[in-house]
Amino acid sequence: MPADLKDGRIVVVGASLAGLRAAEALREEGFTGSLTVVGDEPHAPYDRPPLSKQVLLGRATADTTELPMRRDPDAEWRLGVRATGVDLLAKQVLLEDGESLPYDRLLIATGTRARPWPNAEEAALKGVLTLRTREDGKELAEQLAAGPERVLVIGAGFTGSEIASACREMGLQVTVAERGPAPLVGALGGTLSKLAAVMQRNHGVDLRTGVTVTALNGNGSFTGAQLSDGSHVHADVCVVALGAIRNVEWLADSGLASGPRGIACDAGCRAFNMYGIVTDDIFVAGDVSRFPHPLFGYQMLSLEHWGNAVEQAEVAAHNMVSPGPLQRPHLAIPTFWSTQFGLNIKSVGVPTFSDHVVIAQGSLEARRLAMVYGYQGRITAAVTVDMAKSIDYYRHLIETAAPFPPPPGAPDRPLAADIPIPSAVPDPSVLSHGPTVALTGYLPDRRLTVV
Predict the structure, then answer these.
(1) How far is CA 413 from CA 364, 390, 391, 407, in A?
(2) What span, in angstroms and rounded, lies between the C-alpha atoms of 21 and 306?
(3) For residue range 132-177, what is the model confidence (pLDDT) as tens digits?
(4) What is the pLDDT of residues 288-317, one digit of tens each?
(5) What Å distances lie between residue 350 and 184, 196, 379, 435, 443, CA to CA?
(6) Could you tell me if 119 and 34 are in contact, meaning their C-beta atoms sit under 8 angstroms apart?
(7) Name one Pfam family in it (predicted).
(8) Strands of the 368-375 sheet, one edge to the other
């Protein structure tokens, strides 16, 4: 590694949100060496959240979602070419066109892709789609604009629920099939997911929970699906919203600690090798990373969040060009938001890292509330529904490890909060969509099984 960390060759693999923000931050931090950004899609970095919201509703087109550049990162962009491996010894990234890129430091920000329908023949039916890329967004928007008789959404996580919301806003009939007991249960636990189920049904969604889709039917074009309860859904568009797969396969022979949950790194974004030894020259950021967080029992956290990708990319960039004592940890509190069925849902912390919940403000009946999550007597998360201004207050309580349940004193809760009840966080294996936050040590309210 060059003596001067501000010089040399840096390669960033992944040209989406984390890769772009890291490239910009490297220049802001004074890096003057050569910078190469590799991306498997042919487009410049673009924003994904609008694809399940504005693009489907026709308020924006898929090709107008390009991310604004804060500054020109003065990088060589290698777009539309896939990285196929890393040679740690020779310090080279291998590309599918046969070229190899030498590096002094490497940032891996390859993100995730949509989990496809497992039966390839059924997945190839016309009208069966996933939603992850710009092309996906364009195709789904066109299919919905054509006015299908019914849309089937498989999976009631955030993406599936937002797609169902957009369908209803457009006046389309929609059926949602979810293996778990309610929509969003993997992200929000049992109590709030019941409200999500009520809202979907009140907005005319044909919500089927506790069922799986066993087969997609059609002869060239999708015509319907068989469900595990023996029923059949007639539909002409099917959106598969079964969560995401982390893009790590290209690292299989690299010797890095990569697997289905992502690439393990320390709190400074430095990748671990397969033996758990931290590397000095390889960094990880964004959805593909797994990192330990002291507020959540030092468990390895995997996040699929816009804000996390930005913050982690900036920490990684800083640490790539800073000597050890000046490196800083990535300790951001996970935050995400969703708008669906007329509700604004905001979350801070890790709701799945909880054993109890309490409604600290508002009420389920009013559909306006703040729910606080606790684990072993400490506040670990909060979710607000149409009460976004309260989220910063709860973020402070999480950061300071405040006791659970929270003290009384909210303007609309002068007395004590409701009685805490179990958070009813489901085992991820009962969900069809997978959580947006995964704690990959152990789940707090389940005993470790020693085999």
Answers:
(1) 14, 13, 16, 10
(2) 11
(3) 999 999 999 999 999 999 999 999 999 999 999 999 999 999 999 9
(4) 999 999 888 888 888 888 999 999 999 999
(5) 14, 18, 10, 11, 11
(6) no
(7) Reductase_C
(8) 335-340, 343-349, 378-385, 368-375, 356-363, 421-422
Q: Interior CA angle at 170 toward 307 and 53, to 5°?
A: 10
Query: Chain centroid to CA 220: how far?
Result: 32
* Domains of the chain and CATH, by start: 9-113+245-320 (3.50.50.60), 115-243 (3.50.50.60), 335-439 (3.30.390.30)
Identify which of 206, 164, 87 has the alpha carbon closest to the alpha carbon of residue 343.
Answer: 164
Instruction: Specify the pTM.
Output: 0.91
Q: Which two tokens stand for residue 441?
A: 């040590």
Pairing of strands 213-219, 206-209: unpaired
Cα four-point dihedral sign 318, 324, 328, 331: positive
Question: Could you give the count of Cα atoms lying within 13 Å of 161 in the half-sphere of its Cβ?
Answer: 30
pLDDT band with cut points at 50, 70 and 90 for residue 116: very high
Q: Please list, in sequence order, all residues whose beta carbon lies within 8 angstroms of the beta carbon of residue 435, skipping any fewer than 6 positions away.
A: 157, 186, 187, 352, 428
